[in-house]
Amino acid sequence: MLSDTPGIHHVSAIASDPQRNVEFYTDVLGLTFVRRTVNFEDIFTYHLYYGDERGLPGSVLTFFAYPREVEGRAGKPGIHSVSLSIPEDAVDYWVQRLETHGVDVEETTKFDETVVAFRDPDGMEVELVTGPSPDLPAASDAVPEENAIRGVRGVSLQSRSPYVTASLLDTFGFDLVAEAEDVARYRLGDGRRSTVDILTHDAPYGREGAGSIHHVAFGVADEAELHEWRELLLERDFDVSRVKDRQFMHSLYVRDPGGILFELATEREGVRVGDVAEPGSVLTLPPWLEADREMIEAQLPPLSTNPEAEER
């Protein structure tokens, strides 16, 4: 029997310069670089994973890094922004930290929660949000644990058909909990209490590229349940992929008629590379690509996890 998703598993976006991406998300935001691998559909492209120390579901942001990618453009259909949880008393810390690193910030409120909004180096919209949290602190040398990001809180999206997208969220277990001008908030009542905000104002059509968010993934218990979800979604005439082996999880992709790409991913004990002091320093490949490791590594751009140390 299918159960509601426990919440957001990860969010995946598109970046340009992989080195700049690593430096921003580790040195500035204080996330842990938990895995460096490749896009399994484009093996000469990095797929970079950040999260808490173990890369647990609910803490992870991933990026496909295309050095020559065109600049993305926000709009429908697409995921407008990602929200990361921070402690209530960490707002001033983050405003000061981001400004010190030359990042323009805007402090606002949304549904009575404080939001520190900014753009990453590729222009992706990120929000640091107070309120209910997955409580997966990304403790690192860069950011003290008391101020650290607590995990992925949610996403905001722009759908061609908000009511259809809302119906799919309902199927996944989300409830409508609040409405304001041009936005409807959906939240899971249990688990990680993830949020999805559907922006209802009119918007131009967007363009996928650097700085755009590719998809949001929700967790499922195991591979057997993933196949059950696939059958249900096919019965309801959704555009659904086959179940895919991602080495450290299994995944299913569904694009709703509103144009939003969702993923369902199996819950595992984190995506961090085990027993490696700096997991992001090692390129991990699935068994079916190991024979081509030398060729793949030769085609990938150099990537340092500690550029300052190398300069010294």
Automatic annotation (TrEMBL):
A Pfam family the protein falls into: Glyoxalase
InterPro entries assigned: Extradiol_RC_dioxygenase, Glyas_Bleomycin-R_OHBP_Dase, Glyas_Fos-R_dOase_dom, VOC_core
Domain VOC: 7-131, 151-267
Protein name, UniProt field: Glyoxalase family protein
Organism, scientific name: Halogranum rubrum
